[in-house]
């Protein structure tokens, strides 16, 4: 028989794993540094916080739960701040955001050798060109 | 407690698999900041795995490790994003 505490812990673990998985999919699949930062800051923070909440419920001694609550608050503050700092550093370096014009109309960008090679006349093209991403 | 411990350890294994998948972006990914974001995600997954380990095996010392690692992870992201920009006014 499953008690209420066990059911809550397992539900929170499922939620946390789901959001961490969504963050990983966004980090792999999204076209741009800025969209990846969005995925990493939001979904990954929520997944980590849900899972830490599950651990906090599973550990029911006072000091350990206090440490986990501290960790949750800390995650909520620092994870989006770090992503913001990274994205701002990228913006200061002049990396252009991906727009719909960068999308390859002929299909996935992986199969296009002209795009994948990068252009020699544009030294910044390797970082700024949306078509060069994977 | 056994069911909860098993669930916590399984979730920790899932987080490790997700970290391995995210390493693809850290290896591949075309700009410096992509790598920093991927390493940041791997670090926060590591914090979660340490906390889950502490809860599953009832070793509260791992919680201190998780706290310190979360601090170091944040500091790493801020430091790298400051060092990659010349003027350094990131935050």
TrEMBL record, chain A:
Low complexity: compositionally biased ranges: 125-134
Molecular function via GO: sodium:proton antiporter activity
Region entry Disordered, spans: 97-134
PANTHER family: ANTIPORTER SUBUNIT MNHG2-RELATED (PTHR34703:SF1)
Superkingdom of this protein's organism: Archaea
Xref: InterPro entries: PhaG_MnhG_YufB (IPR005133)
Alphabetically ordered keywords of this record: Membrane, Transmembrane, Transmembrane helix
Protein's name according to its UniProt entry: Na+/H+ antiporter subunit G
Residues spanning the membrane: 7-28, 48-77
Alphabetized NCBIfam families for the sequence: CPA3_mnhG_phaG, PRK12674.1-2
Ranges of compositional bias, category Acidic residues: 99-124
Automatic annotation (TrEMBL), chain B:
Membrane topology classification: Multi-pass membrane protein
A GO molecular function held by the record: sodium:proton antiporter activity
Domain of life of the native organism: Archaea
Main location: membrane
Residues in coiled coil: none
Transmembrane segments annotated in the record for this chain: 6-24, 36-56, 62-85
Gene Ontology, cellular component aspect: plasma membrane
Protein location: Cell membrane
Pfam families per UniProt: MrpF_PhaF
Keywords noted in UniProt: Cell membrane, Membrane, Transmembrane, Transmembrane helix, Transport
Name this protein carries in UniProt: Cation:proton antiporter
Organism name: Halobaculum saliterrae
